[in-house]
Amino acid sequence: MLRLLKNLKPKEWLYAVLSLGFIVLQVWLELLLPDYMQKITALAISNAGMAEIWKNGGIMLACALGSALGAVIVGYFTARIAAALSYRLRGQLFEKVESFSMEEINKFSTASLITRTSNDVTQVQMLISMGLQVVIKAPIMAVWAIVKISGKSWQWSVATAAAVIAMVLMMLFILVIVFPKFKKVQKQTDNLNAVTRENLSGVRVVRAYNAEGYQEKKFEKANDDLTNTQLFTSRSMAIVSPFMTILMSGLSLAIYWIGAYLVGGVPDGPGRAEMFSQMAAYSGYAMMVVSAFMMLAMIFIILPRAMVSVRRINEVLSTEAQIKGGTVTQSPKEGGQGNVVFKNVSFKYPDASEYVLENVSFTAKQGETVAFIGSTGSGKSTLINLVPRFYDATEGEILIDGVNVKDYTLDALHDKIGYVPQRAVMFSGTIKDNVTYGEKKGLEYSEEGVKRAVAIAQGQEFVENMEGQYDAHIAQGGTNVSGGQKQRLAIARAVYRRPEIYIFDDSFSALDYKTDKVLRSALKQQTGDATSLIVAQRIGTIRDADCIVVLDEGKVVGKGTHKELMESCEVYREIAYSQLSKEELENE
């Protein structure tokens, strides 16, 4: 928690100090109330004039109003502090997640990261806004009230001590029994979010396979687990309020019962009046002691879940990104731009025992197209994902323009690359927003550039037929356009950046053969000075590449042009003949 509080700025610390001052003032005014109650009681018993009673009653009312005003001011300050802290925490969490590689994101899971950024931060905000008032006020009030009542009567002190001990035991019960369950609640909330998110993102498949019942059962299990745990914690916490009420009522009864006994033992006169007025004051102080512990009990209701949230937030903030940028901001001037070299590269996923790629070497020179083909799971996508450093090579090195990719700053490295993933990702906004998405040093917005990129990607016809054309709305995830249209817009996004290196991760799979061929031809003509790395399943997509790398179980089993591989590589021939006949291959 102390680590999170370091995010407070001097202004918030000033608010905290002012809150402390107003809390002390508030407690002082509240502790004056029993004193004036004692005076008013003594005046009433002694048949003093009403003027004196009204005077003390007026002062008592002023103290109560002053205490209420202090509470309002403290509430304002603590709300500002809590809101500022949660604002910064959400920003830090988002920024931290943005810096994570795929390894860290997979470690936490997307659903968990969303919960930590939203729900967990809200728990901390609640703790600060309520806890800052109660945690400071309760000890001050308890100690001050105990000092006030000390020496009054040992019988009353014993009754008050018994009530305090009972409350402490109850809070220990909450800490020991309920606290672990709150940690479970957060994990089950993650699971519920994951199931819900999976169902919504895969809703088409769910409906196509009539799997609504299966998904409902899956959701019901996650929902039941969370509900049962929350019922346990809620039921455990539900005993707090009635227990406190019984305790306060019992303590009041004990004080008056003991007081009646003590008053009865004093002869009529000023002594009995004094004892009676002391009983009234002691009752007020005792209630304040109990109220202080009640406030602490409220914190114990909020604290367990909030502390779990604090730990989860700190887990994210303390996790160091494994992939960090270097210091090189630009390539050497000599030797051209966009040259990619793999030198004996091997890779295995974190905590995996087997290598996904083994001893891969190839060179892609500026303006060349290097394609990768192989069976499913052969490591094609993994290989090209090493270039933008979504993962880092386990062994060997990857060079761009003679510089190891690990030595570039991440911004400089990504400025060189136009990346088109397997699954085209669209963001809510317009077509123009999606094509110009991201930042690149030296790249300024150009409407002509947008139209050029869309035209090269063979999307001009469908874009200009949409309402609003380049300002047409795109829904989140691109749900209002087809798969092929999304892929063409994703390709246009890469083209717009004018990168030195294009990475196409099976990015032509949703296109028909004609569009595929025309698009690749346009890319070659318009972006011929850039290097292209293409992963594809179709022979027709890669047969004109300058070099084709054939992968099988993570190893390079063939490398060369289409013609050379047809003669020398059995794996490539099998793939080619599985897609096209011998006559078609010869005719092409």
From TrEMBL:
Q: Which residues form the ABC transmembrane type-1 domain?
A: 17-305
An MF annotation (GO) of this entry: ATP hydrolysis activity
Write down the membrane topology.
Multi-pass membrane protein
Pfam families found in the cross-reference section: ABC_membrane, ABC_tran
The UniProt record lists the ABC transporter domain at: 340-578
Q: Which UniProt keywords apply?
A: ATP-binding, Cell membrane, Membrane, Nucleotide-binding, Transmembrane, Transmembrane helix, Transport
Which SUPFAM superfamilies did the record assign? ABC transporter transmembrane region, P-loop containing nucleoside triphosphate hydrolases
Q: Which residues cross the membrane?
A: 12-29, 59-79, 126-147, 153-179, 238-259, 279-303
Report which superkingdom the organism of origin falls in: Bacteria
Look up keyword Iron and say if it applies. Answer: no
Which Gene3D superfamilies does the record cross-reference, listed alphabetically? ABC transporter type 1, transmembrane domain, P-loop containing nucleotide triphosphate hydrolases
Question: In which compartments does the protein localize?
Answer: Cell membrane
Its cellular-component GO annotations read: plasma membrane
Q: Which PANTHER family match?
A: ATP-BINDING CASSETTE SUB-FAMILY B MEMBER 10, MITOCHONDRIAL, ATP-DEPENDENT PERMEASE MDL1, MITOCHONDRIAL
Its recorded name reads: ABC transporter ATP-binding protein
